[in-house]
Write a structure and sequence with these properties.
flat; single chain; 3 domains; about 5% strand; about 575 residues; about 70% helix; mainly alpha; 3-stranded antiparallel β-sheet
């Protein structure tokens, strides 16, 4: 897009010199060590992602492996990592921790996407640290380079490692001596290890048992999976090689963040732009008149049209978010491609565009009002809470657009979008979405509204358990609600135990699930208080009947028979 550019940045050039072109050449200083680090990192990734039962701790550990690979090869290339790159690396690691602490699906998915984006940004600009200055065009160029890297990264690094000569004969002789020493050490160690292992096994029955288990695992498990593990290692090695190639090759290119000409010259005249802005302003004004007449004025006017207040508010709040987002894109496009040679033209554009964004802000208020009414009428879900939070970030982005247009700093748009996405992700993880949902809906029940126990049972993750236990153990609930929530926790414990049975290792777990397991262990007396019953009509599921509603827990065979009410 047509953005104002900053001052020219000239990074330190390496020994290979500046290379131009889409696929510049860059010689690794120690390609064999770089290739070895790729295989080590690929093997670690294979161990982390073999037999996946959940995301859990394996996600931050995987990101840590990638960051370690980058830092190790930065050392090999004798390149200094800039402070801004360290900041981005820290944000990347912080975002990667979210799946290890939270279980709510939207929060986890968004944090994974943000982490991948931050890793891609690190890959594109690890050494120069200019990622925060990137414009839209730099992101597009980096995406094209990434596609090329998937095909050429590993072959280039492997070919450099194979063809890399020793620097001198002394280094060559030293390498031969090292290889010969390793071979001699292995040959000496093998018979000694066999002798001492045999003696230890004969001397201690427990050691012999552990050794038998290890040999059995090697025969039955590891060797049978060797082919699959090898393929997975090669897959991760190939991906990491593409990332490493991009990391190194981007450092060899001169920085593209310079005051060059726009990609496209402004081609829209003020006549067509004014017609567009005036027509949009009139349409938005007509819509807002209806909002003030019906939505903002209360339910009296709406009832005359045959709607209840909640029914009127239920429709459209997501569509209004799209309206605001599209209006922002239109504003950015017109500001980028409209010719405004004289001061009156600039003033006319700023006035009309500012009026449009002002009305968009009122549209966002309308959308927020609709969400609030909808929530008050039907309760809170993640599908309603997340857009409610997103409205504030969208409003901030639109305000930033207006400020950037007035100050001529449209080149900061990409940084604004990246910052807003990071803040939105961290906000969702900090507020604990499922705890907010549980608290709001239970408070509605305390005020006399209906409580959807099926929603609490099936839609909430383990993130809500600490709040539910705190509430049940507080002793401040009405007796009926207390009994129902206790039954709900028994039902949720059955689902939790069923999910935990699929956990293959500690890598699958999260801090949330570990905390919930501790809560269930501390409150065992609760599970002796109520016993689930067989629910009709099929009699296949166990659960509870709460307020004439069947709350299904687990299949019949998944519960001890002595704890079932006939």
């Amino acid at each position: 897009m047509n953005e104002e550019f900053g001052t020219e940045i000239k990074p330190e050039m390496n020994d290979a010199g500046a290379n131009t072109g889409f696929l510049p050449k860059e010689e690794l200083k120690q390609p064999r060590l770089s290739l070895l680090s790729l295989f080590v990192a690929g093997a670690l990734m294979m161990l982390l992602w073999w037999r996946v039962g959940g995301i859990g701790f394996r996600w931050p550990l995987s990101v840590l492996v990638v960051c370690g690979l980058y830092l190790f090869n930065a050392h090999l290339q004798e390149r200094k990592v800039q402070l801004t790159s360290w900041i981005l690396l820290g944000l990347t690691l912080l975002a990667s921790l979210v799946p290890a602490f939270r279980s709510e699906a939207s929060t986890v998915m968004l944090s994974i996407l943000v982490t991948l984006f931050c890793l891609a940004l690190l890959t594109a600009d690890f050494f120069s640290g200019d990622w925060w200055k990137y414009r839209i065009r730099e992101y597009l160029r980096a995406a094209l380079m990434a596609i090329a890297g998937l095909f050429v990264g590993f072959p280039i690094i492997a070919s450099q490692a194979v063809s890399s000569p020793m620097k001198n004969s002394g280094q060559k002789d030293s390498g031969k001596r090292l290889v010969l020493g390793i071979l001699k050490g292995v040959l000496i160690s093998i018979p000694l290890l066999l002798i001492f292992t045999f003696l230890f096994a004969y001397a201690d029955a427990v050691f012999e048992n552990r050794l038998d288990n290890l040999l059995e695992w090697l025969r039955a498990d590891f060797l049978s999976q060797l082919f699959g593990r090898s393929l997975l290692t090669l897959f991760f090695t190939w991906l990491l090689a593409a990332a490493l190639w991009l990391l190194v090759v981007n450092s060899s290119k001169p920085s593209q963040i310079e005051p060059d000409k726009p990609l496209l010259k402004p081609f829209l005249g003020m006549t067509e732009t004014i017609i567009t802005l005036v027509s949009l302003n009139l349409l938005f004004a007509f819509f807002l008149i209806i909002q003030f007449q019906y939505l903002f004025a209360g339910g009296a006017n709406i009832s005359q049209e045959g709607f209840t207040y909640a029914q009127y508010a239920e429709r459209g709040f997501r569509e209004l978010l799209f309206v605001a987002a599209i209006a922002g894109v239109v504003y950015y496009t017109l500001a980028s491609f409209t010719r405004r040679e004289s001061k009156p033209k600039k003033s006319a554009f700023s006035l009309l565009a500012g009026l449009l964004l002002l009305q968009v802000g009122v549209v966002l208020v309308s959308a927020y009002q609709r969400i609030v009414i909808y929530i008050n009428a039907y309760g809170l879900t993640a599908y309603r809470l997340i857009p409610q939070i997103f409205i504030f970030f969208l409003a901030a982005i639109l305000l930033a657009l207006l400020v950037m247009e007035w100050s001529g700093k449209f080149k900061r748009l990409a940084f604004v979008l990246v910052s807003a996405t990071l803040l939105f992700t961290f906000t969702l993880s900090l507020i604990n979405v499922d705890t907010v949902l549980a608290r709001h809906n239970i408070n509605r029940a305390l005020e006399g509204q209906d409580l959807d126990y099926s929603f609490l049972n099936h839609a909430l993750s383990t993130d809500a358990e600490p709040y539910l236990f705190k509430l049940v153990n507080s002793g401040k609930l009405p007796s009926e609600l207390q009994e129902n929530l206790e039954k709900l926790l028994i039902c949720r414990s059955a689902s939790f135990n069923s999910q935990e049975s699929n956990v293959n290792s500690w890598l699958d777990t999260t801090v949330s699930s570990l905390r919930v397991q501790a809560l269930y262990d501390e409150n065992k007396s609760l599970f002796e208080k109520w016993k689930p019953e067989v629910l009709e009509p099929d009699g296949y599921y166990l659960g509870f009947k709460i307020n004439t509603e069947n709350i299904f827990c687990v299949p019949l065979e998944g519960w001890p028979e002595e704890e079932i009410i006939d």
